[in-house]
Amino acid sequence: MKYLFLLISLFGLSSCVTSKIHSIKSPNHPMFKSVLVYASYSDLEARENYETAVVRELRYKGVHSYRAMDIFSPLKKYTDSEREAIAVKTGYDLFLYLSPNGSNTTTQTEIYNNWYGGVSADSYQSLSDVYFHVTLFERNKEEKIYDGSISSALSKYAVMSTVRASMSEKLVDDLFQNKYLLATDPIVEKDDN
User: Is the per-residue pLDDT at 2 higher than 60?
Assistant: First the structure.
């Protein structure tokens, strides 16, 4: 039983993701009550996953938030007046723009004795780091009020949903610490999904 616990503990540690954030903040900014999250991915599934992760973390903290793909259909082109009418109707006051900014992979080779007495090798690549760029804008203003980069270091067994959750948590914590966000909604309990 003791060995089983040790094995489970080691596996749990090996599947960790560590995220760090570096940001430049505007010193004079208001606090925002409602956020529209846009993830700049051409792959709609990736976009949905990242927008969902950030919105989920914002809602855990009591911030009213929307996924851009729920408000603005990715399949439609909007005029400026249509975008503004939707923004007024929705009521968001902060636009959070998240974009991928690169990744690193690690190549590993395992050498072993094969069944025939010879030596064989298997090589594989694994994702080791993921980078994101985050920018905040007040609605209807072009000036950045927050510009940041997030780096997530992955262990060998980490999955992308863990990366998204770690990245989202760091980002939202940084926004709260720097007084960009004001919680107005009831806090949503975290779930395992």
Answer: no
Question: What is the distance, to the nearest Å, from the Cα of residue 78 to the centroid of all Cα atoms in its chain?
Answer: 26
> Phi-psi bin for 179: left (phi > 0), alpha (psi -120 to 50), beta?
left
- pTM for the complete prediction? 0.78
Per-residue pLDDT reduced to its tens digit, 102-140:
766 666 677 778 778 777 777 766 656 778 899 999 988
Instruction: Determine the Cα–Cα distance for residues 81 and 77; give it in Å rounded to an integer.
Output: 12
Q: What is the pLDDT of residue 57?
A: 95
Predicted confidence at residue 119, as pLDDT, reads 79
Element (H, E) at 56: helix 44-60
Distance CA 141, CA 82 (A): 17
Distance CA 70, CA 30 (A): 26
Q: At what angle do helices 44-60 and 160-177 cross, to 10 degrees?
A: 40
| CA dihedral angle for residue 79, residue 84, residue 85, residue 88, rounded to 10 degrees | 160
Distance CA 39, CA 99 (A): 6
**Amino acid code (one letter) for 114:** N
> φ and ψ at 113, to 5 degrees?
-80, 130
Annotate 10-51 with DSSP letters as a single string: HHHHHT-EEEEEEEEE-SS---BSEEEEEE--SSHHHHHHHH
